[in-house]
Design brief:
nine-stranded mixed sheet; 2 domains; FAD/NAD(P)-binding domain; single chain
Length: 532
């Protein structure tokens, strides 16, 4: 078989397979590759094509009614490879504590320990093009300059960069050459059709933007279309189950999480060598092929346990000084930054352009200062080590994805995202800042210039979501507390599974992709046993 344009499939066709996978991003491609050259027939559905196109991307448009979160631009991408096509490749596994049920964090706890996932983490390193090297910082520090911030209240942690990061490019040839795998491009799953007694999936209804319609029947079906779209598709499949499939306990779409990221000032290092060392991301344009790893600094586990905190970590990024000051993170400055990104990548649709233009006008003073500083930096560059912080969010059932009354070009109801954070999550942020401030001072590492500016909700003005959409089909042994079981099978449906970060019960502070791939490989092993 090969890569096929679904617009060429005759209307009314029924395709039969052993396994149907919806979504060809990190989870879907990692899963599909595990079945290449097996006796099982696999259909992989991808909404987009081989190249980015505006029309499929517009199917992502929705409403933000909570904290700002990107739904279309710079976030989810509809094409082969999914969001890995815009991914910098930053990888880190979750920590052991992230899997524990912590009495100070409501709704925490995975149904297995971190050690259980370790074999699939090792395999995921290969799939993510990381190589076999360790995530232990000591393995990377030989003769390399690094800020000595670890020890005591801070723990030194390592992030690594995938190269190539784009799964669509890295694995296109594998997918195209597989005799037992059919990849259908421009194929949009619009409904999961269950049997009459709602015990298993009968078929996946597919439509194209050209007006075609057909179905795919699989002995097993896996949804791998992202932390928002997995929930959307279950909620939209409501002809037989009024609340949507898998939603008998009103859990689908709840517990939506993203990582809060913020810039919290900058460091002027006492030793200039630290501006080029392992503690710094020198530029995101060269990570993976030139810079393969960087250090971060996280609150040590004893501190988290003793003070009952959520996780928090930080690292340094070389950045123009103008991009670290309060004016840059004002409402007008944020809109300026957003519009600059859109100009650099014009195909990305954004229905909020008008709002951002109005914000520029209202914040003309801060925008003017920011433009002047950016212009000055182009003439005489002034770079600094910007401090970037990431927090672990507490799961909240009222942080959720629902469906609005608006419909997209395929007739599906659009999403409505209400992202919320616990006010108590700020404790981890404040504690990390305190520990970092003390470490820089006590070890005479330089001058730490902090940005104290907050938004009206009390969060740092620079805070934004990390585009890590998680939790909306959470994993739990109890169907009254989770959408999928420990094998990632939807409770109550014998052959419907979910891959991706929507199954995460908690988020940790680490980027989710490596864990997404590890869980996809684990699911593949489960499905092979079941389908063989």
């Amino acid at each position: 078989m090969s890569l096929t344009d679904a617009r060429m499939v005759a209307a009314g066709t029924r395709l039969d397979a052993d396994l149907c996978i919806v979504g060809a991003g990190a989870a879907g491609i990692a899963l599909a590759r595990e079945f290449i050259d097996t006796s099982l027939q696999v259909v992989l559905l991808e909404s987009g094509g081989l190249q980015f196109a505006r029309a499929p991307q517009q199917l992502y448009i929705g409403d933000n009614v909570g904290l700002p979160n990107h739904l279309t631009a710079h976030s989810r991408i509809r094409m082969l490879g999914g969001s890995t096509t815009r991914w910098t490749g930053q990888c880190r596994p979750l920590d052991a504590l992230d899997f524990e049920a912590r009495d100070w964090m409501p709704f925490s706890g995975w149904p297995f320990e971190r050690a259980h996932l370790e074999p699939w983490y090792r395999r995921a390193q290969t799939v993510c093009n990381l190589g076999p090297e360790s995530f232990k910082p000591v393995a990377w520090l030989n003769g390399v300059s690094a800020l000595p911030l670890g020890g005591g209240e801070l723990e030194t942690v390592l992030y690594r960069f995938a190269h190539p990061a784009d799964f669509g490019q890295a694995y296109r040839d594998d997918l195209e050459a597989a005799a037992n795998l059919q990849v259908l491009l421009n194929a949009n799953a619009i409904e999961i059709e269950p049997d009459a007694d709602l015990r298993q999936v009968r078929a996946v209804a597919v439509r194209t933007l050209a007006g075609g319609a057909f179905t795919v029947r699989g002995r097993a079906v896996v949804l791998a279309c992202g932390g928002i779209e997995n929930a959307r598709l279950l909620l939209a499949s409501n002809r037989s189950a009024a609340a949507g499939l898998g939603n008998q306990h009103d859990l689908v779409g709840r517990f939506f999480m993203d990582h809060p990221y913020l810039f919290s000032g900058y460091l002027v290092p006492a030793d200039p060598a630290h501006s080029e060392g392992l503690s710094v991301i020198r530029t995101f344009k060269r990570v993976g092929w030139e810079q393969r790893a960087h250090l971060g600094f996280a609150l040590a586990e004893p501190i988290l346990r003793r003070e009952r905190l959520n996780g928090a970590a930080c690292y340094f990024v070389r950045r123009f000084l103008a991009e670290t000051v309060p004016e840059y993170f004002s409402a007008g400055g944020k809109s300026l930054s957003h519009l600059r990104q859109l100009l650099a990548d014009p195909p990305l649709p954004d229905r909020q352009v008008g709002r951002h233009l109005l914000s520029l006008v209202r914040g003309y003073r801060e925008v003017g200062i920011t433009l002047a500083r950016l212009g000055a930096d182009l003439v005489r560059p002034k770079r600094c080590l910007a401090l970037r912080i990431v927090l672990e969010p507490t799961p909240r059932p009222d942080s959720r994805v629902t469906l609005s009354d608006q419909r997209d070009a395929l007739g599906m109801r659009r999403v409505r995202v209400d992202w919320r954070l616990e006010p108590g999550d700020r404790r981890g942020l404040d504690r990390l800042r305190h520990a970092l401030r003390d470490a820089v001072r006590d070890q005479h590492l330089g001058s730490l210039v902090e940005d104290p500016t907050n938004d009206p909700n009390g969060w740092p003005a620079s805070m934004t979501g990390g585009n890590h959409h998680m939790g909306t089909t959470r994993m739990h042994v109890d169907p009254t507390q989770g959408v999928v079981d420990p094998d990632c099978r939807v409770h109550g449906l014998a052959n419907l599974y979910i891959a991706g970060s929507s199954v995460f019960p908690t988020a940790g502070y680490a980027n989710p992709t490596l864990t997404i791939v590890a869980l996809a490989l684990r699911l593949a092993d489960r499905l092979k046993s079941r389908l063989d």
